[in-house]
């Protein structure tokens, strides 16, 4: 009996892909609800103790920032795990860090 042709994966568009986890690396924007919640909790805990302060990255000293984001201490794109330790950086520092990996 013939089988139906494979359909493209909605996340990566590869034919017959049954593994939505393979594309979660550097540059991927796909996140599960649990990952989104974990990131939000990390930023909220930071704000409770440190306020709207980015700790800075590289040569940038700590500074005020309202656009704080959760940041992987060991980047997923560099072999870290999605469940790894998170830190907090502002969007600008996080972008600079990503561009200098």
Structure description:
This protein is an alpha+beta fold and 101 residues long. The chain has a domain at 33-99. Helix content is 27%, strand content 14%. The strands form two sheets. The protein has a two-stranded antiparallel sheet with strand order 1-2. The longest helix is centred in the middle third of the chain and has 18 residues, at 33-50. The N and C termini lie far apart (51 Å).
Summarize the structure.
With 101 residues, the chain is an alpha+beta fold. It has helices spanning 33-50, 91-99, and strands spanning 53-54, 63-64, 68-72, 86-90. The chain has a domain at 33-99.
| Residue fraction in strands | 5-15%
* Poorly predicted spans: 23-27
The assigned structural class equals: alpha+beta
Q: Please give the radius of gyration in angstroms.
A: 18 Å
DSSP strand tally: 4
Order of helices and strands: HEEEEH
Helix count equals: 2
Q: What would the average pLDDT be, to the nearest integer? A: 76
Overall geometry comes to: globular
Distance between the termini: 51 Å
Largest sheet, if any?
A: 2 strands, antiparallel
Give the % helix: 25-40%
Q: State the strand order across the main sheet.
A: 1-2
């Amino acid at each position: 009996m013939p089988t139906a042709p494979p359909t493209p994966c909605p996340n990566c568009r590869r034919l017959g892909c049954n593994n939505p986890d393979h594309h979660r690396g550097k540059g991927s924007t796909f996140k599960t609800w649990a990952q989104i919640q974990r990131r939000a909790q990390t930023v909220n805990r930071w704000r409770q103790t440190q306020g709207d302060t980015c700790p800075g990255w590289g040569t940038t000293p700590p500074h005020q920032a309202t656009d704080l984001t959760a940041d992987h201490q060991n980047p997923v794109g560099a072999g870290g795990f999605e469940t790894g330790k998170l830190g907090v950086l502002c969007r600008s520092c996080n972008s600079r860090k990503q561009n200098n990996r």
